[in-house]
Design brief:
- With about 180 residues, the chain is mostly helical.
- The chain has one domain (about 1-25, about 70-170).
- About 55% of the residues lie in helices and about 5% in strands.
- It has a two-stranded antiparallel sheet with strand order 1-2.
- A hairpin with a 2-residue loop joins strand 1 and strand 2 (about 60-65).
- It starts with a helix and ends with a helix.
- About 35% of the residues are buried.
Length: about 180
C-alpha cells in the first residue's frame, strides 16, 4: 500500500509539472514526445521493437520512436531484462553503465529511487539487482526521470508494460530452449 501511495504522489507531482510546462509553452522532452521514455538508441541495422514507428535524429543522437508510451516502456523493460539475465549485470551501477554514457548515471538513478520513499533509503549504486517486479519498476521509473526530467506515468502503467515485457522475454526463452 505504501508503494501505491508513493506512486500516486509522484504521478500527481508529474502531472503538475506537465501542466506547468504546457502553461508556460515549454515542449515535452523528446523521450516522451517520441513515446520512448528510456531514450532507447536507434540501431537501424539490428533491432526493430514491437510498436516501433521509426527513428528520429536529434542533436543528442538517433532514437527510436514508438506508437505508444506503453510500447516504449515495454522496450525499456525488455532491455533491462536482457542486461540482467543475458549479460549478468547485477547492480544498479552495472546496468546503468551499459544504459548510459554518463559515468554518474548509476548514482543518479540510485538517488531517484531513494527519493521515491523511505522504504528505499538504503539504495546505492552498488545495490544488488535481482530482477523482482518492484526493482524493475523502480529502475524504469528512475530511468524515465533520468532521461526526461520527470515520470508522467502511473505505477499501474509501468506494471502493465513490465508484464508485457516479461511475457515476451519468457516466450523468447522458450524458443531458445527448444
Amino acid at each position: 500500500m505504501k508503494s501505491m501511495t508513493r506512486w500516486l504522489a509522484a504521478a500527481f507531482v508529474a502531472t503538475l509539472l506537465v501542466w506547468a510546462q504546457v502553461a508556460y509553452g515549454q515542449d515535452e522532452p523528446a523521450g516522451l514526445r517520441n513515446n520512448n521514455p528510456g531514450n532507447i538508441v536507434c540501431d537501424r541495422k539490428r533491432q526493430w521493437w514491437q510498436g516501433q514507428t521509426g527513428c528520429v535524429d536529434l542533436k543528442e543522437g538517433s532514437f527510436v520512436t514508438f506508437d505508444t508510451p506503453e510500447s516504449g516502456l515495454r522496450a525499456l523493460y525488455l532491455l533491462l531484462s536482457r542486461y540482467h539475465e543475458e549479460y549478468g549485470l547485477d547492480t544498479i551501477d552495472k546496468i546503468m553503465s551499459r544504459w548510459s554514457s554518463n559515468p554518474e548515471a548509476g548514482e543518479i538513478v540510485a538517488k531517484i529511487i531513494r527519493d521515491m520513499g523511505p522504504a528505499n533509503a538504503g539504495i546505492t549504486k552498488d545495490t544488488g539487482f535481482w530482477g523482482t517486479a518492484d526493482q524493475y519498476i523502480s529502475m524504469g521509473y528512475a530511468i524515465t526521470v533520468l532521461e526526461n526530467g520527470y515520470n508522467p506515468y502511473e505505477y499501474a502503467f509501468h506494471w502493465e508494460a513490465l508484464l508485457k515485457a516479461r511475457t515476451a522475454w519468457l516466450k523468447q526463452m522458450e524458443v531458445i530452449d527448444q
